[in-house]
Amino acid sequence: MIKSNRQNKIIEIILSKNIDCQEDLLAELKLAGYNVTQATVSRDIKELNLTKEVAPEGGYRYALRKNAQKKEPLGNLREIMSFASLSADYAGNIVAVKCRPGMAQGICHAIDELDLSSVIATIAGDDTIFILTRSENSAQALTRQLSS
Fold first, then answer.
1. What does the alpha-carbon distance between residue 32 and residue 34 come to, in Å, rounded to a whole number?
2. CA angle 119, 86, 40 (to 5 degrees)
3. Burial of 103 by CB count in 10 Å (0-12 exposed, 13-18 middle, 19+ buried)?
4. DSSP H helical segments within the chain, as ranges?
5. Which of 6, 22, 86, 113 makes the best surface tag, with the fewest CB within 10 Å?
6. Which of 104, 82, 83, 103 is nearest to 95 (CA)?
């Protein structure tokens, strides 16, 4: 089960239904075919930066933070790289980034958010990212940036 798919499903659920507790969210995920534990749901809520807001009919419900989308992409990349990346190197116009297991897709997403003109494409596995750049000079400069 891919974490990003599960977290996308959580967002879909909270946008379409008034979910006021983790148990209800867990039940909805299980109905959607995601066999997860309450601890996993709790981590997902934290990682997605969900908050509770007053529901229109009273009570509370989970919601996306209003400022969650406004986080500065470069700050996001620095934050995740400092924790999750192990090394970056290049060969020709390709940059390879080694990461902690399970972290490559998050870092790759943060790199994509920067929308760098020197980057043609990115691809992430479990612990490795390949970044195709326009030139060897671009790859070298990006490697320096990612390593700092």
1. 6
2. 95
3. buried
4. 3-16, 22-31, 38-47, 73-84, 104-114, 136-147
5. 86
6. 104
Tokens representing residue 39 in the block: 């601890």
Q: Is 135 exposed, middle or buried (0-12, 13-18, 19+ CB in 10 A)?
A: exposed
1/44 Cα distance (integer angstroms): 14
Q: How far apart are CA 90 and CA 97, in angstroms?
A: 9
Cα gap 31→91, rounded to integer Å: 46
- Report pTM: 0.52
Per residue of the chain (148 residues), what is the pLDDT tens digit? 678 888 888 988 988 889 999 999 999 999 999 999 999 999 989 888 888 888 878 888 998 876 544 445 566 677 777 778 889 999 999 999 999 888 888 888 888 878 888 999 999 998 999 999 999 999 999 999 888 7
Integer Cα distance of 49 and 33 in angstroms: 23
**Both tokens assigned to 49:** 């930066």
Tokens 């070298």 sit at which residue?
140
